[in-house]
Amino acid sequence: MSHLLKKSLVTTSFLSLACLTLASVHVSAQEKFDKSLEQTISSGTLKGKKDKENKAIEWLGIPYATSERWKAPEDVAKWTDTFDATKVGDKAIQFNNGEVVGQENALNLDVVRPDNAKADLPVVVFLHGGNNQTGHAQEIKGNTIVNDIDAVYVSINYRLGAFGFNPLEALKTGSDEENSGNYALLDIASALDWVKENIEAFGGDKDNVTLTGFSAGGRDVMATLTSPLFKGKYDKAISYSGGMTLADVEESQEIFASAIAPLVVEDGLKANEEEAKSWLLSESKDVQGYLTSVEADRLAKLMGNAGIRMSVFPHLYKDGNVIPKEGFETTKLNDVPLMLVTGTNEFSLFAAFDQRFAEDFNSGELFKDKKKLNEFLYARQYGGQLYRLSNGVESARNLEKKYGSEIFVTEISYGDNEKVTPKLANSLGAFHGIFEPLLQKPSNYEAFIGDSFENKGAQQLSADFKGYLKNFIRSGNPNSKKLTQWDKWTAKGNEVLSLDASKNKATIKMISDDETAFEIIKKMKADQSISDETKEELNNTVLNGRWFSSELDKQ
């Protein structure tokens, strides 16, 4: 080889290396987030604010869609001025704590991310709880989470109550999706589309999205697994205390017509509720005209006493389009890695605020009356066991034969041990929402938990729980070398990660939860703490018709 050829090859190699180096620098620069409060998205420029205490940046109340009553959401009109994203957006109109609050067309979301230069962060989209009748995007804010889970966090407001779900035939004048009556799911799908289109502006990875939700939001997450509308819209899913509950269209129409009939009579359109109900069940254009003209605050109050009973406020309809008629029996599930999270005392809050116990629970008299306390403990214990089962292993069992992706189930029992958390153990235990104080501070449940999460054990449990979440949202696998191995759930082993803590350290281990609803009901029958007559009364009034009680209801 000649000297000139050797020199030419060396020069070419050097230039190639230089180009590669420059390309690497260019890519690296592209992969950094600019940390600017002002960002531009598809609908315009917006400006957020810094949360210095939590080292986070947040953009609040961003409109992701707009909608007319009982219509599919549409794109937001572009704005020309800089949108002020420093204030919380309107919540969806709802009847909450005895008053109507919020607004129609409150389709907005919050985005929170770490205050650093990282880009291509995984994205978490959160659906709040509240029985799909109440609640708001700020339920879990994200500020105290995003640095620990190293993600961009999006929480959304979507339509609720009779605005979010309405199956009446007269409203079915639009597309198949609109005619489903599942308007809240259409909102959620629209929000996920917004994330795909815009999240890169906030340093998020549009191709790594985890859909999460608590309670009703968790049930919505589970419902989306069945829906062709959500195919490809997210990559992983987490359901916090959200089992598998769907509603029949025709039964739901009967319930909605009965609920709205008194308004029709009040307005003088029909002489009595029977005539009003029959009219509401018709396909008359007059029905549609009436419903779209009724004052929003009157509709917001409907079915407000549901108390996690589908029989009072049915929603998530098996319409055949948004949700298949076969529901969870469909063989075309959106098969993504799934995490199911539940507390071990899931029914305690609902028992405490059931009309049978609420007054005495709030006053403290319940704990002074042994007979009443035994009744409460019966409802709390067995309702909690059935609810825990429904949220976790029972959902996994129902999916198992049709699901290819890995399912991870965890049960949080922190709060049940009287020696560690005496106040909590003697009242609510590991209640519905027990995961929330592990993520967020201050907690929404401060009045109940007191200082139960201030010890070293709870703090370590919090850190480890967020560690599992961080791993899962990044890769679909919650495990790392620093954490106790979390085995995937199988039908044979019923593997569950048990999360608990002493006052000084977290106690995390794998257990097998192979219990069934039939076995729990058998224990209920054998329980001698209250009379059989009282037991039957509690079964029929406090525990009946809940998301988790189908096997008990059959009894």
Describe the fold and architecture.
The chain is an alpha/beta fold and 555 residues long. Helix content is 36%, strand content 16%. It is built from 20 helices and 16 strands.
Which key phrases capture this entry?
eleven-stranded mixed beta sheet; 555 residues; alpha/beta; 16% strand; three-stranded mixed beta sheet; 16 strands; 36% helix
Q: If helices are DSSP runs of H or I spanning 4 or more residues, what is the number of helices?
A: 20
Mean pLDDT: 93
The structural class is alpha/beta
Helix content: 25-40%
Q: What would you report as the Rg, rounded to the nearest angstrom?
A: 26 Å
Give the CA-based shape. globular
Widest beta sheet: strand line-up: 3-4-8-10-9-11-12-13-14-15-16
Précis, in short:
With 555 residues, the protein is of the alpha/beta class. It has helices at residues 3-30, 146-149, 161-164, 183-198, 216-224, 249-266, 273-280, 285-293, 296-300, 348-352, 358-363, 370-391, 393-399, 422-425, 436-439, 446-449, 456-475, 517-526, 532-541, 550-554; strands at 38-41, 44-47, 49-51, 56-63, 83-84, 94-96, 99-101, 108-114, 121-127, 152-156, 204-214, 236-240, 338-343, 407-412, 495-501, 506-512.
Write the layout of secondary structure elements.
Blueprint: H1 3-30, E1 38-41, E2 44-47, E3 49-51, E4 56-63, E5 83-84, E6 94-96, E7 99-101, E8 108-114, E9 121-127, H2 146-149, E10 152-156, H3 161-164, H4 183-198, E11 204-214, H5 216-224, E12 236-240, H6 249-266, H7 273-280, H8 285-293, H9 296-300, E13 338-343, H10 348-352, H11 358-363, H12 370-391, H13 393-399, E14 407-412, H14 422-425, H15 436-439, H16 446-449, H17 456-475, E15 495-501, E16 506-512, H18 517-526, H19 532-541, H20 550-554
Parallel strand pairs: 2-5, 9-10, 9-11, 11-12, 12-13, 13-14, 14-15
Antiparallel strand pairs: 1-2, 3-4, 4-8, 6-7, 8-10, 15-16
Helix pairs in contact: 6-7, 12-18
